[in-house]
Amino acid sequence: MSQTERRSRTFEWVFSGYFPCILIFGIILTFLISFNSTVYVMSEIDRPVAEWELVAVTGYEDTWFRDVEFVNSTHGWLAGEGILLRSTDGGSSWHSQLETRWFFWCISIVSSSDLWAITNSKLYHSINGGDSWNNSIIGLDSMKKIVFLNSSFGFIGGNDGFVLTTDGGISWTLLTNPLDETDSTYPTDLQLTESELRISSYDGIYRSTDLGTSWELECNRSTTGLDLINETYGWAAHPTTVSDFDVRNWNEHAFFGPQTNTRSRKFNDIQFIDQNHGWLVGSGPSISYSRDGGRSWYEQDFEDAYLISVSVVNASYCWVAGADGVVARTNSGNGLGLKQLEGIRFSLGFTQSWQLFPTIPLFIAGLSSLVFVTVAFYLKRRYEH
Q: Are residues 37 and 62 in the same domain?
């Protein structure tokens, strides 16, 4: 038997009996190789990178800090489990200002002298930079968030409802509550402008244009953080994705990167200083940075932590805080890091919370698989004839 005949019989045997199995195996192998190779090539570390420095808060190494707020490079506050701390030297030292058996949930800074803070049941106010504090009970329990637009206009929300002041806290008006009064639907963030109120929760984002008399569900995605730089532009952090807001529409984006943390993905807070530069904190990754309005993100180098709050003083000076006493600062906050890839949001339903199917690698893998199938059928038809 000639070599040509032996080759022809070999191909006939392969394509007649095992072609379906070879085709399926080849498609899977081609897809996986193309997909992972593309992810590897595209997931580059862009420089210069951000450098974060852990800050020791002596005596509070295991504290869960719910909020960090700095008004400038030297003066800042930490809110946590039963404690409100202040630093006047850029975080080199911290001193207790208030202690209680309740959680301090949130701080709102109007100016370096005008400060507000809340626990579950008490409202605290200082007009001298925190040297002394007045406290009051306003009839709202389980308070979680507070925000003041100026010295007069303030907004507080919690499990039991929402209140608004227009006279600097002298009086408070109870608002209509768009959320179910359960622990699972407490406000995760509040935003206040001259004409609009917004509430984010695990039910979505609610908006009011009549000072809280009525509300509309603006976005039905579970939301953990809000940041609006004006009445027409802002951002929202969802548990595993991010949305940007333009005039009246929320546009959701999902992004993907190699899992560098052992914790699953969960975003908690977001803050932008202008329409381009913003930071996102949580876990898996702990800190992400965008320089193009949230269209692309970079994972900044940081330890495997669960962060809850970010405070941005300027384009380079930032603070973060979170669980287990983690507090950190950077003077290079606008540095880059590991580039995250745009992903397909519906793929979250088929994978773990941090695993997305990135768009470009998925396209290349699909195209490679199509080429493989085309070549395989071409060879089959050629040797059948």
A: no
